[in-house]
């Protein structure tokens, strides 16, 4: 089982969009997938539950010990794809966690009984650093970071690397590593091309070859509570996400052969 968190400490990077479409794409490739929505905005939940608010119990109840993960998990419309949904109660649960024993490991503990049922567990996260994000980092082994190639594209990368290092050291998740940087909302302009070139030069193979273009069909799909793979399967956005899914699968096979447990440092010297 592979566990991956989509994390960015900068808003507007296409993080939730990427979490949704990679989850759907992996399921369409025959994998059993669980998407966990750890963002109180609950946008991933809204899309995968076809616009319907999640009924309790949700992730908030799971983190507070009021329900099991198995009780809260729902089947999405896509075959082989389940969701552990969020709702507005998750924001309050995040505050309540601060005074609880094992607050950083609540999600990892709750998932232990169900994780063997899945090939992939993917987590969507909030762009705000909180106990919810820390729970995500203690739960997964891989972090994927979506980056929109703009003037402030590298904002937050250093802080995120520090958070990964701290979780590895202090919260007993030695397998955690940054597995890749994903270019999202790319455009055919000089700024986008220059930033992409700089990223690839600085971080080498840590930057995925697949890049997600800015594509209206992706946003239209969300408005209809669908993935772009279902709404516009022949669109450039859908093709890019299918390529990304294949690359995620390929990276996993490569890591298995190499037996890697490296930290996936964002230091340019390490990535070059």
What is the fold's blueprint, element by element?
Blueprint: E1 2-6, H1 15-28, E2 33-37, H2 43-48, H3 59-63, H4 69-72, E3 74-75, E4 81-84, H5 89-97, H6 106-111, E5 120-124, H7 131-139, E6 142-147, H8 157-170, E7 177-186, H9 190-203, E8 207-213, H10 216-223, H11 228-231, H12 236-258, H13 268-271
Helix pairs in contact: 1-12
**Which series of helices and strands comes N to C?**
EHEHHHEEHHEHEHEHEHHHH
Spatial strand sequence of the major β-sheet: 3-4-2-5-1-6-7-8
Supply the CATH superfamily name: P-loop containing nucleotide triphosphate hydrolases
Give me the number of helical elements.
Answer: 13
The averaged pLDDT comes out at 90
Give me the secondary-structure category. alpha/beta
Major sheet size, sense and barrel closure: 8 strands, mixed
**Helical amount:** 40-55%
**Cα radius of gyration in angstroms:** 17 Å
Walk me through the structure.
This protein is an alpha/beta fold. It has a single domain (2-260), classed as Rossmann fold (3-Layer(aba) Sandwich). Helices cover 44% and strands 16% of the residues. It contains 13 helices and eight strands. It has helices at residues 15-28, 43-48, 59-63, 69-72, 89-97, 106-111, 131-139, 157-170, 190-203, 216-223, 228-231, 236-258, 268-271, and strands at residues 2-6, 33-37, 74-75, 81-84, 120-124, 142-147, 177-186, 207-213. An eight-stranded mixed beta sheet has the order 3-4-2-5-1-6-7-8, with helices on both faces. Strand 6, helix 8 (157-170) and strand 7 form a beta-alpha-beta unit. Helix 1 packs across helix 12. It is globular. Mean pLDDT is 90; it is low at 268-272.
């Amino acid at each position: 089982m592979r566990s991956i968190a989509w994390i960015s400490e900068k808003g507007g990077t296409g993080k939730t969009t990427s979490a949704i479409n990679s989850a759907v794409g992996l399921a369409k490739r025959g994998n059993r997938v669980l998407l966990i929505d750890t963002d109180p905005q609950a946008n991933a939940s809204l899309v995968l539950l076809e616009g319907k608010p999640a009924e309790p119990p949700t992730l908030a109840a799971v983190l507070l010990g009021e329900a099991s993960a198995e009780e809260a998990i729902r089947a999405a419309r896509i075959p082989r794809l389940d969701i552990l949904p969020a709702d507005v109660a998750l924001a309050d649960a995040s505050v309540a966690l601060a005074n609880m024993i094992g607050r950083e490991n609540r999600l990892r503990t709750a998932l232990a009984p169900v994780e063997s049922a899945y090939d992939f567990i993917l987590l969507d996260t909030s762009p705000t650093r909180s106990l919810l994000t820390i729970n995500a980092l203690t739960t997964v082994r891989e972090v994927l970071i979506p980056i929109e190639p703009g003037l402030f594209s590298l904002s937050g990368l250093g802080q995120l690397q520090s958070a990964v290092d701290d979780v590895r050291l202090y919260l007993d998740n030695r397998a955690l590593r940054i597995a890749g940087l994903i270019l999202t909302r790319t455009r055919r302009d000089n700024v986008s091309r220059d930033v992409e070139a700089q990223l690839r030069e600085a971080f080498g193979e840590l930057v995925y070859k697949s890049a997600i273009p800015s594509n209206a069909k992706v946003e239209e799909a969300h408005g209809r509570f669908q993935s772009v793979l279902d709404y516009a399967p022949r669109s450039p956005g859908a093709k890019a996400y299918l390529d990304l899914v294949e690359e995620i699968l390929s990276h996993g096979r490569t890591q298995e052969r190499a037996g890697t447990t490296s930290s996936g440092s964002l230091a340019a010297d390490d990535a070059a």
